[in-house]
Amino acid sequence: MPDNNLPKQRVPISWLFKMAWRDSRKNRSRLLLFISSIVLGIAALVAVYSFKDNLQNDIDRQAKELTGADLIVESRKAATKETQRMLETMGNDRAAESTFASMVYFVKSGGSRLVQMKALEGNYPFYGSIETTPASAAKSFFTAQDALVDKTLMLQFNAETGDSISIGDLRFKIAGVLDKAPGQTGIAASVAPIIYIPLKYLSKTGLIKTGSRVNYKYYYKFNNAAELDATIKKLQSKLEKEGLDIDTVADRKAQTGRSFRDLNRFLALTGFIALLLGCVGVGSAIHVYIQEKLSAIATLRCMGLKAWDAFLIFLIQVSFIGLVAAIIGSTLGTLIQFLIPIVLKDFLPVEITMQISWGAIGQGILLGLVISVLFALPSLLAVRKISPLNAIRAIFEQNAPAKRDLLKLVVYLLMIGFVIAFSYLQMNNWMQAIAFTTAIFVAFLLLMLFSGVLMFLVKKLMPASLNYLWRQGFANLYRPNNQTLMLTVSIGLSTAFICTLYFVQGILISRVTLSSGSNQPNMVLFDIQTSQRAAVTDLAKSFSLPLMNQVPVITMRIEEINGKKAGADSTNKRAFRNEIRATYQDTLTAAEKLVEGKWTGRVTAPNDVIYISLDQNFARSIKAKVNDKVVFNVQGMLLPTVVGSLREVNWSRMQTNFRVVFPSGVLEQAPQFHVLMTRVPNSETSAKFQGTVVRKFANISVIDLGLVLRLLDELLSKISFVIQFMAGFSMITGWIVLISAILTSKNQRLKESILLRTMGASKKQILVINAIEYFFLGLFAASAGLILSMSASWGLAKFSFDASFMPPVLPTLMLFGSVVLLVVITGVLSSRSILNKPPLQILRNEAS
Amino acid sequence: MESILNVRNVSKIYQSAGRELTVLNDINFAIEKGSTVAITGPSGSGKTTLLGLCAGLDRSSTGSIELNGVLLDKRSEDERAAIRNQYVGFIFQNFQLLPTLTALENVMVPLELRGEKNIKAHAMELLDKVGLADRSHHYPIQLSGGEQQRVSLARAFSNKPSLLFADEPTGNLDAETSEKIIKLLFDLNKDAGTTLVIVTHDPDLAMRTGRVIKMKGGLIIADENPNYAR
To answer: What does the pLDDT read at residue A397?
Structure first.
């Protein structure tokens, strides 16, 4: 008979959907559990995206309240008379503010602290308000010798409205508590608390002297936007020439947006890690699911189902469940977004109005659908390769070694491409995106490697004399499809995440703590005038405090580099933009090392070339080399110099370090202030000494390292809370993957349990076997995570923080133990249903 | 009479632990339309492998197989799937009902794969013939082993196959149920005029067919009419 008997067959798409639906009947809850691994990742991303959208809307809406004015002109030096005249004619309304660091003395409690002083005049803010308690204090403090004091300071010094504070030579009455300054974040308030005083009293405080570091701000309100633009256009170049910066609402909006874009990127990437973790779980669970479907697929193939049609049935199933998970995740994310402003409240400069972001929900649903399908594809593609022969027997024979499936390879490449593309969308930088993807990939590989090595070692070292329960429990780890490696990766990655966070926090704290070691300074006095130098030295001596470092500081700007001025060199704007604080010295300090050129410590004749020394990183940033000519503007006087040498500076040492160092014999007569470093033996002496300094030398500021440590701790705690919140998604995802994996391997566990119980094993014995298996699993995962985390922390400590790393033993052990315990409890509880059923019932169910 | 299955010089060689293992060696036979044939032999004799090749579930290493006029050897897996759907029915030792489908849906699947419509009545009729019309909405797990094999019979006949392959159809059943299933199988086969090929260990079952092909070590050692031989 001829071959034209070959039948044509085309399965209707509708039947594939129907079959996908029918096939899912007994597996829906299970499939949903697999896919639930991605729910939290999607939720985290939707929450972050929604928050980003709402934040952007609020920044746009409240932009004027961020600045409080239409235009801000800023300068680090007092305006010249001509500039002053110009500044006084601009805008429809104007205000002025001088900001500087100063000590404040609380009279009632006797406490003192360095604060950010703002001397204000005018109706600022023109938009929004200075929030105070009582509210009327924001306006009334101008009318008397009153001050508004930040609420954190009020709490710290137990002060009340009506109390007195000393600022310089004057006493002010606290008119009210400052709850929030325009555009100020909670974290800024705790790091640099603000005190407002009326500007008219500033000069009488005696705090502003030559060389004092004051930031002058002029706030303007314009009734007409066109007038504002015209003013900016007209004055921009002139103001910049005078060293004044211009800040508009649009600038601030962009700047705030930029800062939060970075934060959002970080949050989104953290959420993405949780999502990836979930995806690995999904991929692994679908693999086992398909293995269990082998016989049914083979039967369908016997009846004439084509390979791709079989694949499509399961693709439809996974897509549908992925869609459901993405919708659940997006809904959850929309709810979680309400938590993010609470988590980030200390970092937000604007009030957040939470609204549903359909864009974020859409992105979440699409992402969930794409990623669940993508990560399930390698297992789904295997459906094409299931032979109908499986229906009549298990294939023990192999025709030929299995060919590599090219499509699978394409899918793996797509996965990598997807992770890179997603990272790029967050980071907007291909290198960073590739680096992030590589880091994730390496972390996954390392975790698998650690886990593999640990399993190998335990297998090799496990004594054969161990009792049966231990041997069986351990052997269960090698059961086919038990997902030990995948679980190690997911639990290990979560553990590594949390541990690294904890270790880095510890490294940063100990770095500062170490810098306050017994022979290191722990108190810095700055803004010491030349005339006060001797008296301050005497005061320190009277307290028996050592003078550990005493250096002059001169403020200057770069005028020219190799003959090019600021305007002439557009590629090197950074060099001319900022003020430089330089010093002069005749020898290198212990924190400095010469790396290039020749050190010149002293200029002896007036006409000698002045060879300066630059910090090598600073030299790189301003594009200067040895022998380049640099002209400095030292408060009006131009000073030509030549770069004589480059230094490597150890900035982590607790001492004053400088980017630019002059030789002695040049700057001695320039306007300058001095810095003195000392070591106070205890907090009592510290408080007494600070109090005396503030009373005797009101202009001198004191930084107490104890306070810095407390602030750093507070700051890190707040930051780590945000990170922990996001890491929580990964941790819970890891936990869901664990439950999912245990339930996935339930069939195998059932068979083993039946066999053991038929042979007379008690429930308790099976429970012990399970507990041992999960104990080892938890042990491998936690060890792998801890090893990865320790390696990462060591690397960060050595290469980023230039510090040594020694993990704290007790907390590390507690963290390690908690992970192991969680895995054991989850594992044993999830397997409980197997133990509680009589073997016969299970046997019947299994047989049918 | 016209042959529905022609097996010519068929061998099957597997790779096992790096060595070649010949499971079938130069097999030749033809099966006439409408006949009943039993393939018997001890475990490992190659009978299930032969069934797999004849039904187009696998490819032979050498030789050719022609099913209903179509040469299977050069056909892709999807083409062979279409051939199976059109011409072949299966009965398995372990029933192989799809656990997530009801009895009725299981019977409907081969027809649905053809894209046929309004098939419910036909499927119900078949279930009625095997005595399970009242259990049509039950899932396999809710049926006994015998009942499951009856559903399997209904499914095998649902697409009116030219050739029905039964792989140890009573292998998982007790003697009494086996007898009922065999009777049902032969009755349905007679009604439908289908060619029946049974792979079995059971000599009594083999004796009920018109021809017995005996295998051993991958070779046909006898090909006889059991009634004539007896």
So the answer is: 46
Which residue among A5, A392, A848 places its CB closest to the CB of B141? A848
Half-sphere exposure of A551 (CA within 13 A, CB side): 23
Distance CA(A235)–CA(A243), nearest Å, equals 12
pLDDT on residue A2: 47
Closest to A778 in 3D by CA, of A815, A805, A807:
A815
Short-list A553, A557, A545, CA closest to A526: A553
pLDDT at A570 over 90: no
Instruction: Tell me whether 0.85 is exceeded by the ipTM.
Output: yes
Alpha-carbon distance A424 to A771, whole Å?
43
- Give the distance from CA A217 to its chain's centroid: 31
| Mutation target among A392, A396, A398, A844 for the B interface, most CBs of B within 10 A | A392
Question: How crowded is the C-beta side of B86, counted as CA atoms within 13 Å?
Answer: 19
Write out pLDDT tens, residues A273-322: 888 888 888 887 888 888 888 889 999 999 999 999 999 999 999 999 89
Poorest-confidence range of A168-177, A737-746, A822-831, B91-100?
A737-746
Q: Summarize pLDDT for B149-197 with one digit per residue, the tens.
A: 999 999 999 989 999 999 989 888 888 888 988 998 998 888 888 999 9
Q: Is the dihedral of CA B79, B85, B87, B90 positive or negative?
A: positive
* Arithmetic mean of pLDDT, B139-143: 91
Q: Alpha-carbon distance A332 to A321, whole Å?
A: 16
Query: Whole-angstrom Cα distance, residue A637 to residue A107?
Result: 42
Q: How does A73-89 read in b/e, with b if 16+ C-beta sit within 10 Å?
A: bbbebebeeebeebbee
In this complex, is the C-beta atom of B55 within 8 Å of any C-beta atom belonging to chain A?
yes
Q: Give me A177's structure tokens.
A: 């508590």
Query: Between chains, do B68 and A23 touch, taking CB under 8 Å as contact?
Result: no
Q: Choose among B48, B81, B97: nearest Cβ to A301.
A: B81
Q: Are A716 and A508 in contact (CB under 8 A)?
A: yes
Yes or no, beta carbons of A308 and B78 under 8 Å apart: yes
> Of residues A707 and B112, which shows the higher confidence score?
B112
Rounded to whole angstroms, the Cα distance separating A174 from A161 reads: 5
Could you give the CA distance from residue A738 to residue A742 in angstroms, rounded to a whole number? 6
How far are the Cα atoms of A296, A787, B88 from residue A11, in angstroms, in the given order? Answer: 18, 53, 17
Tell me the C-alpha distance between A392 and B165, whole Å.
11
Q: At what angle do helices A307-336 and A13-24 cross, to 10 degrees?
A: 60
Q: A132: which residues sit within 8 A by CB, 6+ positions away?
A: A138, A148, A175, A176, A177, A178, A179
Percentage of chain B lying above the pLDDT 90 cut:
53
Is B77 an 8 Å CB contact of chain A?
Answer: yes
Which of A5, A306, A392 lies nearest to residue B48, judging by beta carbons? A392
At B91, which amino acid appears?
A: I
Q: Which domains does chain B have, with CATH numbers?
A: 34-52+81-229 (3.40.50.300)
Q: Report yes or no: B30 at the A interface, CB cutoff 8 Å.
A: no
Nearest CA among A504, A344, A345, A422 for reference residue A41: A422
Structural Rg of chain B based on CA atoms: 17
- b/e per residue A372-384 (b: at least 16 CB within 10 A): bbbbbbbbbbbbb
Residue B115 pLDDT exceeds 60: yes
- Cβ proximity of A113 and A707 under 8 Å: yes
DSSP assignment letter at A614: E
CA geometry: angle B36, B37, B42, nearest 5 deg: 150
